[in-house]
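Table S2 (continued). Query chain:
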Amino acid sequence: MIALPSAREREQAPHVRGHAKTFAFALLLVVAAGAALLATPWTTEAGTATVPVDAVFTAVSATAVTGLVTIDTQDHWNLFGEIVILALIQLGGLGFMVGASLILLTLRRGQARLSDAILIQNGAPTLSLREASRLSGRIVRFTLAVEAAGAVLLTIGFAREMPLPEAAWHGLFHAVSAFCNAGFDLQGEYRSLTPYGAAPWLNGVVMLLIQAGALSYIVFEDVAVKRRWRRLALDTKLVLSVNAIMLVAGTAVFLLAEWSSALGRIPPAHRPVAALFQSVAARTAGFATVNFADAQAVTVLAWIGIMLVGGASGSTAGGVKLTTVGVVAATVVSTLRGREESHIFGRRLATPLVFRAIAVIALMVLVHFAVTLFLLVSEETGGEGEIGFLALMFEAMSALATVGLSTGITPSLSTAGKLALCAAMFFGRLGPLTAAYALQRRQRPVRYRLAVAPVRIG
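Corresponding output:
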């Protein structure tokens, strides 16, 4: 028998389509409110109004937890302005974690049971109001607990060089920014965390906060409940495996390519940790303890690919997500082994899932190409100076994957270029989740199969 929820429960429970639309509208509303506040003279150190495009850019970057800035956070904004930015980061990061987790859990449940599949195809919810409330509450408590612990630990580190009240504010701001993978900092002069390239305590705490936000509450809950690798859900195994591979690969690339370049100002004993920090922060955190303007071309190109990957689904991170890359990688390996279906960790991946993963990556690559092309045109016609093609590619991917790393060109972009990055950040925040949801909803059972026709490839 198929148990259907009551009419009252179906009306009150979170509706997937309505939830997604409400989520996007709420994000726009938060951006508009934040931009309006940041445009006022009350939020700046100088007491003058901020240029509208810079206010909008900052609001979008904070809400989309990116970290790209056209004006330095510490130098331009006063305490009230910094509080507004911190509130936007928290709303954007926590709101996305809760909203995305509800949608993803609903979609996964729709794949798992016949009754839920029928309900989701008819537009009905598969999560009750009580289930949604409990999950949201657990995510909020997890977020606040991790951020509070991070704030205390960072305050201890900052207190070594500044008064305790200032250290406490720096600790809180950077803890929230790191957990939400936002990349905003209070160092001034667009320096990010470069003054702390040889500070193991601060580096370690920030890396842990970034990973806590980028791996998602769902993964941590699954690990805490199952405790054994064999019992973990397949998507948890994919997240942890791909994440570990990306961390090791990124660290090795940065260490080898930048030992005497970007890492040159850091003592040799601290360079491995600094390389690990860049690898951790590359997948949507946006912090840097080195100057990426000094990075080699090979590193910049490699980082464009690493930024595309992002973090786990339902986390504060952006990108196409670890599981998406894991599914495509498993498909490639299975194909090379001569298999007709994708296998990983002793399980078979559904063919429609593989198609959706490929579609999400292709969509992000296509949008990145379009944004880069637009920046090339806009900066050639309206920019202040000549900007290299690779730097524009890097900036476009940083915005699209909501990373926040920069080679230093953001403040010098034209108004059209800044608005293009705003659109890229907004799309990057909602695009992969929306695409995955839309593609699954469009999927319908096939009643017939067309005849196979040969096609030459290769």
